[in-house]
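Revision sheet: structure tokens.
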Amino acid sequence: MPIRLHNSFTRQLEDLRPIVAGKVTMYNCGPTVYSSPHIGNFRSFLFADVLRRFLEDQGYEVTQVMNITDVGHLTLDDVEGGEDKMEAESKRTGRTAWDIAKQYTEEFQTCQEQLNVRLPHHMPRATDFIEQMGEIIEDLLKKGVAYEVNGNVYFEVGKFPAYGKLSGKVLDELEAGARVAVNKEKKDPRDFALWKVDDQHQMQWDGPFTGGQRGFPGWHIECSAMSMHYLGRSIDIHTGGEDNVFPHHECEIAQTEAHTGERFVGIWMHARHLLVDNTKMSKSLGNFFTVSDILAKGYTGIELRYALTRVQYRQSLNFTLHGLDEARKAIARVAEARKRLVRIREGEERAGGDDLKDVIQAAHDNFTASMQDDLNVSEALAATFDFVAACNKSEASVDGAKQALLAFARFEDVLAVFGDEPVASDAPPELVALLAKRKVAKASKDWATADQIRDEIGAAGWKIVDAAAGARLEKA
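Predicted:
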């Protein structure tokens, strides 16, 4: 079965057909580093990570690029002019925009590690690509699809007839949305900035195109420059949150295709917004959480990752603290099943005669089919827990345990929510040593010492499980 993905541009499921057979180029809109990463950001980033992991699981050679927007982008209330988010944070804190970008870039990278993200092959910063942006802007000016007014450069939307196709917005809607900020410099209120001149803006560069005045790039041009630099003029997949569809991705298409004359993206994919307690996340409502906020409450990175990825990316996801508790229980269920299989494999628990061949094959098939169906993580998790139940009921052979553990390792490699293969027992070494002494005491029929050791182990919060293959320790 081919991998089928929902293309936001065509609004239908499509078979993945890469430009180059066996290879996938993928660009993911990354963070604007003006504040601590919040869990809503990471729903989109984790969806992109799962996509890459599954593509690699299916044998594709993936090249993944995720940008760091360290110039800032203009606020929705002031679409083209004035202050951007980086500048606003600088005024609020008294720190330079450069220092703010550095701090939050480092924090974002730490969060990626904590949430078990497979790092993109390239994570370019927008500030390192000013020259490439200038080359695109100069070409658009020469082609007559961009124009300059008082040093500012705008893309002329009226000269790109396909504008609005991604978002599905008609002309009247586009014009009404653009009038949030009336700008008399523009020929058309829908036109968007490629280069801005503003003496008050901290981040400025000499105009990187012929005749360009000192200024800074518009938000949209950054991604086009970085994508083309690493992935070429046309790419297979571009992802982001649903809030990126308009205006950001709509503008990316216009400027890139006007520049190259080629189709920019094969499949556009967008994750739905995250709700918290069935409400849009907001600081004023007290339901706004950064990644650090959640980890400070005692939850682990994989528990947060589980909670943010457990539902297919195109479905609404309601985040709650109760959901994190459920994630913890779900992860523990998988860990216990894997521990039992490890004990069988290592000879610490009696093995049976079941090679689990049919159970393992069914688990692989169901997991793969779910993920091939537009990354249906919910169904993939269901397949995993069906497998847990089957393994727990089985009398697995040593070889069956080995193969089942390999299946769990595969599911972990794709979803990254279960953790590494557990050891048979994670009891403290001093308790393991006591268990060994108890074995000697029992062999010598020293029942009083054996009972005393049992009580010591119990007082430490562990229990002894006597089995045919030998005693082991489990959490009480």
